[in-house]
Input
Amino acid sequence: MALNNPAFNNPAFQDPRAVQTYPGGPQAGRLGGSTQFATAKQQSVDTAANAKLEGAFAAPPAGAIETGRMTVEDTVFKTLGLFAVLLVTAVAGWIWTMSTWDGTVNTSPTMMPWIIGMLGGFVLAMVVIFTSRKKVRPGLILAYAAFEGLFVGGISAFFEAIWPGIVMQATIATLAVVGVTLALFASGKIRASKKATKIFMIAMFGYLAFALINLVLMWTGVTDGAFGLYSEKIFGIPLGILIGVLVVIMAAYSLVLDFDSIQQGVRNGAPRQYGWLGGFGIMVTVVWLYIEILRIIAIARSQ
Output
C-alpha cells in the first residue's frame, strides 16, 4: 500500500510477518518486550510469576522508549522535530534569498538557496530510501530536513518577491489540506484501498511524465510561458490550475497512504527508529503538496 512514497517501501510498513526478523522476535513485537507474560504462561501457575504479572498490568502503559518499538505518538514527535529543523533552515533560506533583492527592476532574488536545497535534499532522500532497508539513519533524515528547509525557504522567498502574500496563502491552504485529510483518516471516513491506489499510481506516473516533458520544453525554449505548458489555457482556464487541483487531490491521498503505512508499521511491531522513516515520508509528501499549491496560486495570480 506504500507504493506511492518510496520512504514506506519497506517490509516494516507492509509485511505483518516482518516483525519475525526484528531483534526480540515475534513475542517482543506483539507484547512490546513484556516477557513476563510469556514466561508466566509457559511456566503454568506459579505464585511468583503471577505476582510479576499483576505488577505488569498495574504499571503504566509502555511507550516507545520502554518497548523499543515504533508507536504513533513517538512518530508524531519525530515528525514535529523534522519540521522544526525545516522551519529553521527555511528562515535561513528566506533571508539569504531576500538579502540579494532590493525591490527594484534591476535586481532579482537569488536562486542559490533554492538550487542547493533541492539538489542536496534529492541526494539525501535517495540515500535514505535506498539504505533504510538495512539501517535507518536519523542523522541523514535530519540533514534532509535541513536541505529541504533551505529549498522551501528559498523558493518561497522567490515567489513572494514576485507575488506578495503568496506564501501565507499557500501555507494556509497546505495546513488546511493536511488537517482535513488527517481528521478524515482519524475518524475512519477515508481509507486507502487497492483499487484507489492503483488509480493513484497510474495518475502519478502520468503526472511525472508530463512534468518531465514540460521541463524539457522549457529548457529547449519550445514554450515561452513562465510555467511552460502549465501556462497554456483550455477553455480559458490555465492548464496548470486544472492539473494542480488533481495533483493536490493526489497529494492528499498520498498522505492517507502515509498515515496507513505508519499504522501498519506500529501493528507490525517495527523498531522504534522506523518512526524517523515515517516522519521522513510525511515530510516528503507535505513539501510536495506545498510546492504544488504555491504553483497553482502563482499561475492564478499571473492571469
